[in-house]
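Sample entry (617 residues):
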Amino acid sequence: MMVRPRAWAWLVLLCGMVATVPAVAGAQTPPHSFVAGHGQFLLDGKPFQVISGEMHYARIPRACWRDRLRMAKAMGLNAITTYVFWNWHEPEPGVYDFSGNRDVAEFVREAQREGLYVILRPGPYSCAEWDFGGFPAWLLKDPTMVVRSRDPKFLAAARAWLLRLGKELAPLQIGNGRPIIAVQVENEYGSYGDDHAYMEDIRRMLVDAGFTKAQLYTADGAKQVPRGSLPELPAVINFGPGEAQKSFATLKQLRQDGPMMSGEYWDGWFDHWGAPHTADDADQQAKDLDWMLRQGYSVSIYMFHGGTSFGWMNGANSNGKNYEPDVTSYDYNAPLDESGRPTPKYYRFREIIAKDTGVTPPPVPAVPPTMTAPTMLLAEGISLWKTLPAPTHSEQLLSMEALNQAYGYILYRTQLDGPVTGDLVIDTLHDYAQVYINGKLAGTMDRRLGQHELPLKIAAHHARLDILVENTGRVNFGPALPGEHAGIVGRVRLAGKPLMGWDIYPLPMLTPGDLRYSKQPCDGPCFYRATFTVTTTPKDTFLNTSALTKGEVWLNGRALGRFWNVGPQKTLYVPAPWLKPGRNEVVVFDLKGKSGQKIEGLDHPVLHAAVLRSPAE
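Predicted structure, serialized as tokens:
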């Protein structure tokens, strides 16, 4: 959808971006060079210390990009690092989207307008606590395809993607006078495999895509450099607090000629549902940053600004046994918090960078205050059971991907002959299920807790079995990655007998759709609608989800993200540009909804509430 210039100007003002900057488009810019040489990085032949910070345009409302970039410049950074998430741009094979919040080229141009260079991480694998590590779910439709391998089917899909991305971004390299100084090949492959031929395949794809006028490089943990690097490219290293000196010592042993750079210095961490909010060691981080800068080493702080994994885009961790889905917020304890506000860490890092570089940064921009939205009564609702689409019938169970579905929920329905008593067993559940007998909730199963069995006692001669499954976020890192099909993978058995003959209902819920709400009571899996009025200029706010159980929230048709009463996150960030003066609509889908619930507005986030380990109740 195109937005008129005046509308964009209004959105820009909401994020506090009022200064005028010179346009880049159409300007004649001389070519420059950025290469690794003589043990360091060279910009136009002169030594250059990269002081970068990571933030992802997909996790930030477009109207706020410029505001966040100015905050980066004011902290003393000279570059911005960003992933490009493949699934964000190619939702279906051969269907590409670089519009609106997906306009990565405009994000790069805006960085240049703010005097920042750009380090690009196009993958094709990203990680980043993003669903499936940035891979599109449709790769899993072919059960024989193996991602991150030399499988010809995977390589063909990755090549087509990178060639298309090159059309957007290759013109924006430093060799063309634009801001992209470096492009990463794959991502931390040494923590996954050691196939150097595969890494060469990815490097060749990037070259063929036109990324020849910026410095290619690889990134790994220090000990994994031999497995994930390429001898002809610089290798940068990723590590966390307290590991700087040891990690660089290892890199020096492996790459005596340098250059020395931390591609990810972890200045925080992410949170999992049902686990405590991650503690922060700002003192150690300040010491590490100071030490690296004084050595003359380059660094990219991960994250400078985390933002939000809006909608269904959070990932998960797994070592092949456990499953740990990530929360919606990607605050990360970063210098700039989830809503773009500087934290004490921001000012501490700013002081260190200024001291160690001798460069005084621009003043820190003023940030508009937050607001408290009025309390919203979820007075209108409709049961999920009244909104089901036409099913697909299959004797065998099918995954989401087999039905061309990427996110949301999927319902499996079959008829049972009873009476029967025994365990309902799901071979492989991805990821959370509510089980119903004749429309009545019989129990839940949670992959996070290793649950895949539920005792049932069915007295009726005929009964309807419904298994409502949520894709809680595909694993984004580790050996489980290739098998991250969503839904039920494998068989379902009851009392030892395989169940066959299923009606399967895809429920992607990318938007709530046009539903027929009523004021009749609605309990169980229900959609609810409420409205509230903004009487002043919209400002950032937060929705308190403490009264809700498990599900998703949309604001004016935009998916804000997930909620789950297991904690630790109990608010959802509402960016000011997504609010409208006047009437605003909130839609909630709650797996265990109750009529009459309320959502309170808050002027601050709640990301560290007490956690529950048990399933949602």
